[in-house]
Write a structure and sequence with these properties.
It contains six helices and 14 strands. It is an alpha+beta fold. The strands form three sheets. Strands 1, 2, 3, 4, 6, 11, 13 and 14 form an eight-stranded antiparallel sheet that branches. Strands 5-12-7-10 form a four-stranded antiparallel sheet, with no helix packed on it.
C-alpha cells in the first residue's frame, strides 16, 4: 500500500498524513481483544513484561484507582506479543513508512496507547524527537494506528500543521514525570484528525501534537510503531540492536 504522490506531498507540507483502511477489521478486533486480556491481567507477569501503566501514575490524573479499567499504556509489545509483531512487520504498514523515510527500516519502539472511558487523560503536547533525538529528524517516523474509531470527543490526534518545518523546539520536563512539553505551543491552531479503526496517521518526528482527554463512555485505543531509517544516528538506542523490519 504505497502512498500516492498527493499523500506524500501532504505529509511533506503538513508534517502528517492520515490513511484510512490500512488494517483489516478482523485483525483490529484481535488486537483489541488482546489488549482487553492484558488489561484484565494487569497484575500478571505478562502484563508487567509489557510495561502496564495506570492512569493513577499520571500527574493530575482523574483517578487514583488501579484496575483493568484504568490502564493507559503498554510498551514494547512486539518482542513478546505475536499479534503486535505481525502488525509492526505488516508489508502494508511498511510500504507507507518506506514511502516517507525510505529503506532499510528498523523498528525503534512500539506502544499501545489507551484512553479509558471518561478518565483517559490528555497526552501533553510534544515533538517525538524531543525524546528520541534521532539525527536526521526526518529519518524517524510515527505510525499511529486506531484500534477504535478515534474522535474529537474520545481523544484523537491533534497536530500543529507545518510545525516540523520549524526544527526542534525547546522542551521542559514536567516535574515528577518523564514527560517533556514545548516551551511554546499554539494549541488553538491545531488540527484534529479523527480516524476510523484500522486507519493509520503518520507523522514527522518534529510535528507538534497532543491528544485530549477522553470524555466518552467508550475506550480509545491505539497501537503505535516508531520506525527509523538505517544509517541514522540514534543516541537513545543502539541502532544495530533495533529490529530490522525492511531490507
Amino acid at each position: 500500500m504505497k502512498l500516492t504522490p498527493k499523500q506524500i506531498a501532504e505529509y511533506e507540507e503538513r508534517g502528517f498524513v492520515a490513511v484510512e483502511g490500512v488494517i483489516p477489521a478482523d485483525r483490529v478486533a484481535e488486537m483489541r481483544q488482546r489488549i482487553e486480556e492484558l488489561c484484565d491481567e494487569w497484575q500478571s507477569d505478562g502484563a508487567k513484561r509489557v510495561g502496564a501503566q495506570q492512569e493513577a501514575d499520571v500527574a493530575g490524573a482523574a483517578t487514583g484507582e488501579r484496575s483493568a479499567l484504568t490502564i493507559r499504556k503498554f510498551s514494547d509489545l512486539v518482542p513478546h506479543e505475536p499479534l503486535f509483531e505481525r502488525h509492526a512487520t505488516d508489508p502494508a504498514v511498511l510500504d507507507l513508512v518506506e514511502s516517507l523515510i525510505g529503506a532499510p527500516i528498523r523498528l525503534y519502539a512500539d506502544q499501545a496507547l489507551l484512553k479509558p472511558p471518561r478518565i483517559g487523560s490528555e497526552k501533553q503536547p510534544h515533538q517525538d524527537n524531543a525524546y528520541f533525538r534521532v539525527d536526521p529528524a526526518d529519518a524517524v517516523i510515527t505510525a499511529w494506528c486506531a484500534l477504535d474509531d478515534a474522535t474529537v470527543e474520545n481523544g484523537c490526534m491533534h497536530y500543529l500543521a507545518e510545525s516540523h518545518k520549524l526544527g526542534a523546539e525547546s522542551h521542559t520536563s514536567i516535574p515528577g514525570t518523564p514527560h517533556l512539553v514545548p516551551d511554546k505551543f499554539a494549541r488553538e491552531q491545531t488540527i484534529a484528525v479523527p480516524l476510523r479503526a484500522g486507519g493509520i496517521v503518520l507523522h514527522h518526528s518534529l510535528t507538534l501534537h497532543y491528544t485530549p482527554t477522553n470524555t466518552t463512555s467508550s475506550w480509545r485505543r491505539a497501537f503505535v510503531c516508531h520506525y527509523v531509517r538505517e544509517g541514522a544516528e540514534t543516541p537513545g538506542r543502539q541502532l544495530d540492536s533495533l529490529r530490522l523490519v525492511r531490507f
